[in-house]
Specification:
The protein is an alpha/beta fold. An eight-stranded mixed β-sheet has the order 7-5-6-4-1-2-3-8, sandwiched between helices. Helix 1 links the parallel strand 1 and strand 2. Helix 1 packs parallel to helix 2, helix 5 packs parallel to helix 8 and helix 9 runs antiparallel to helix 10. The site of uridine-5'-diphosphate has 17 residues, from strand 1 and helix 3.
Length: 317
């Protein structure tokens, strides 16, 4: 019996590459059909694109029954797009792939082979080089991975892409996690299962431009940390505790000094420094609290992760 593989493709303003992507992926699908007797469905998620992405997807769906699309009412972000894709994928195996051909379709064969004998539940791609990426960005990316792995138990691998092929069982496990603040790199690790890492060299985007500014990536990394670790809350308490102790000691010292030598009103500069420093620490800790509070706030609202405006190719949502 042939297996069905669902390919989920989040698209945000990808007009220049969709056509190219479709060519490549269908070519790969043909190869895999001959080799492994697998069928395919292509599930494109239009994440509120402002260019012609949707029109192109509709045209593809008209001519190819394997193509399905879901179109959001606005840009909800890649996380939401992946979630929508996973929810609507019906394959025995499901893969997530970027539209820009940075995730080589050729790797699907190796991924499928890894899963087919049942030893692994997931085969994921990992970049071993960050060529073509700004230095500063690579540096901060590495730093982020080091920190998050220290303070959370989600096991997030450096260089891991979202590009991966998963079994039905793993997809269902991921769907069980109905949280609003989705951080997939953490979710994939958190659900467990056996993951095989396949390494590849970074390839540059085929056309179009990246949707991630440094600032957006920075905020995304904060999302990741607050979603998968409560360690920063502990940092806040520990710092507060240390500063309490220090201030008690200082109060003692000042009282003793005043009793022995009297008050000679000196040390104004050091006082100002202390005030600045301590209030800085307070603000920092408040900020940490605020981060968690805001996440809890959004989580309790139970808003939908995305809103579908239209869909086609046999998707009902
Ligand atoms: N993407 C999306 N919604 C967004 C941003 C990006 O669906 O708000 C998609 C985008 O169309 C692409 C994938 O996520 O298919 C990865 O984006 P991009 O290539 O810009 O990221 P990079 O590879 O530079 O990290
Ligand atoms: Mg890309």
């Amino acid at each position: 019996m042939s297996k069905l593989i669902s390919i989920i493709v989040p698209c945000y303003n990808e007009e220049p590459v969709i056509g190219m992507f479709y060519e490549e992926i269908t070519r790969e699908a043909d190869i895999m059909r001959n080799k492994f007797n697998t069928e395919f469905e292509f599930l494109f998620i239009n994440d509120g694109s402002r260019d012609n992405t949707l029109a192109i997807l509709k045209a593809l769906a008209d001519k190819d029954p394997r193509v399905k699309y879901i179109s959001f009412s606005r840009n909800f972000g890649k996380e939401a797009a992946m979630y929508a894709g996973l929810r609507n994928a019906s394959g025995d195996y499901t893969a997530i792939m970027d539209a820009d051909l940075q995730d080589p379709p050729k790797m699907l064969e190796e991924m499928y082979e890894s899963l087919a004998d049942g030893q692994y539940d997931c085969a994921a791609a990992r970049r071993v080089s960050r060529e073509g990426e700004p230095r500063v960005r690579s540096f901060f990316a590495r730093l982020f991975y080091r920190i998050i792995n220290k303070i959370s138990n989600a096991d997030i691998v450096d260089g891991a892409r979202d590009y991966r092929l998963m079994t039905r069982q793993m997809v269902d496990a991921i769907l069980e996690m109905g949280e609003y603040n989705r951080f997939s790199k953490g979710i994939f690790g958190w659900v467990g299962f056996n993951t095989k890492w396949l390494e590849f060299e970074n390839t540059e985007r085929a056309a179009g431009e990246t949707k991630w500014s440094f600032w957006r990536l920075f905020l995304y990394s904060l999302d990741g940390i607050t979603a998968f670790s409560t360690a920063p809350l502990a940092i806040a308490s520990v710092m507060g505790f240390i500063f309490c102790i220090i201030s008690f000691i200082m109060i003692g010292v000042i009282i003793a000094k005043t009793i022995i030598w009297g008050d000679r009103v000196a040390g104004y500069p050091s006082l100002v420094c202390i005030v600045f420093f301590v209030s800085g620490v307070q603000m920092f800790c408040l900020g940490i609290l605020g981060q968690y509070l805001s996440k809890t706030y959004l989580e309790t609202k139970k808003r939908p992760v995305y809103i579908v405006k239209e869909s086609g190719g046999g998707i009902e949502e």
